Amino acid sequence: MQAAFNKLAHSLRSVFLLFLAGVSLFLIWIYTPPSPEVQLLSDPLENASPLKKEVYASSDPMVILGYELLVNTSLHIGPQVSDPQKRYTGNKLECVSCHLNEGTKAFGIPLNTVVSRFPQYRGREDKIGSLEERINGCLNRSMNGRSMAIDQKEMKAFVAYLNWLSGFKTEEMQLATALEKGLKDFVWPNRAADLKQGKAVYAQHCALCHRLGGGGKFDSQTAQYLYPPLWGKDAYNNGAGMTRLLTSASFIKYNMPFGVSHQAPVLTDSEAYDVAAYINQQERPKKSELAADFPDKLKKPLSTPYGPYADPFPLSQHQLGPYRPIADFYEEVFGLVKIK
Ligand code: HEC
Ligand code: HEC
């Protein structure tokens, strides 16, 4: 009898213990937060750049939209967008194809210090221009597209983002300073650019990414260019700043091949000059009404590849140099010192 009772008590205890274990497991299951691995996997920002993380952490929808427009321009306002009303760019470049490192690279036409420089006098229009007008300039020329209204959401987002970016500071990221704006000067070779030499430099240093035919490499998976085109239908048009030999040569010298910094360029002044000339002699989309640019012709940069000019030098010399004689002419005749 005693033995039977002991056995029953033992079984009941086992059942009770099993029950307790079950309840505990259930409670643990309910109260444990999802494991960190699961969270990281489902977090789209996990592989994002430090800047993108900060942008999203701001939780400001206009700042986030502005960032997206700058980095994924072609996906939001490019020619592939389904609603034609939303198409503002005519090629599939991104703003950051030229405004490097998400618009923060020293002498890579950075945008992180740009807000403080506007409004600003602009020779192309011969008037004081706003930041919005400057953005429209790149939309019409670099992006071969059309202007946005000053008060529309996308334009406000660009400006909101650039304002936010001007106050952005970080320890780990190198940001361009106010002195490292725009492009860095290089020494102009005192000769016309050599297109044959430029073609050779292109084949050696550029074609790997931008391809021999200049069309770049499109990634159909992301529907964006991995390596942007330098000429052809998807490139900047002939009214863009990048078509000016002196502008593109300084961009190329201090930023290309992709990854070089202005402290340690790879190309010589001569190589950058020749390859920039070679690229800009290729076919690209044409901007209409270029003759109306620079109402005051004295303000026209020396290497603007289209006339009319306020000097007697031929078009070919404006496109290929040498530029020293043209600069000397402006100094002697008009007392103007031209640096571009
Ligand atoms: C094909 C190259 C290219 C692309 C693409 C491009 N830009 Fe630019 N951008 C330039 C050049 C060149 C300049 C003038 C740099 C200079 O002369 O110092 C410039 C200047 C600017 C400036 C004035 C910078 C300053 O320091 O004064 C702003 C703002 C700007 N771009 C905005 C944009 C925006 C926004 C987009 C996208 C919608 C864009 N850009 C796309 C080439 C480009
Ligand atoms: C390793 C690949 C690589 C090489 C090599 C390279 N580039 Fe680029 N280039 C890029 C990338 C990528 C961009 C766009 C920047 C971005 O998306 O961050 C770019 C942008 C440009 C741009 C501005 C955007 C455009 O489409 O107009 C020009 C101009 C340019 N490169 C010229 C050159 C020249 C000239 C050379 C050779 C001296 C060269 N690149 C070599 C990868 C490369």
Structural class: mainly alpha
The overall average pLDDT, rounded, is 90
Please indicate the count of domains: 2
Quick one: how many beta strands? 4
Number of helices: 14
Oligomeric state of shown chains:
single chain
Q: Can you put this structure into words, describing what you see?
A:
42% of the residues lie in helices and 4% in strands. With 340 residues, the chain is mainly alpha-helical. The protein folds into two domains: 50-180, Cytochrome c-like domain (Cytochrome Bc1 Complex, Chain D, domain 2, Orthogonal Bundle), CATH 1.10.760; 184-340, Cytochrome Bc1 Complex, Chain D, domain 2 (Orthogonal Bundle), CATH 1.10.760. Mean pLDDT is 90; it is low at 32-42. Bound molecules: heme C (2 copies). One heme C binds at residues 73, 93, 95, 97-99, 109, 111, 114, 117, 134-135, 138-139, 142-143, 158, 181-183, 236, 240-242, 247.
Keywords:
Cytochrome Bc1 Complex, Chain D, domain 2, 42% helix, 340 residues, 2 domains, 4% strand, two-stranded antiparallel ribbon, 4 strands, binds heme C, mainly alpha, two-stranded antiparallel sheet, elongated
Topology readout:
Elements: H1 2-31, H2 36-41, H3 50-57, H4 61-71, H5 73-77, H6 100-103, E1 120-122, E2 127-129, H7 131-140, H8 153-166, H9 195-205, H10 207-210, E3 217-219, E4 224-227, H11 245-255, H12 269-280, H13 315-320, H14 324-334
Bound molecules: heme C (HEC) (2 copies).
The site of one heme C (HEC) has 25 residues, from helix 7.
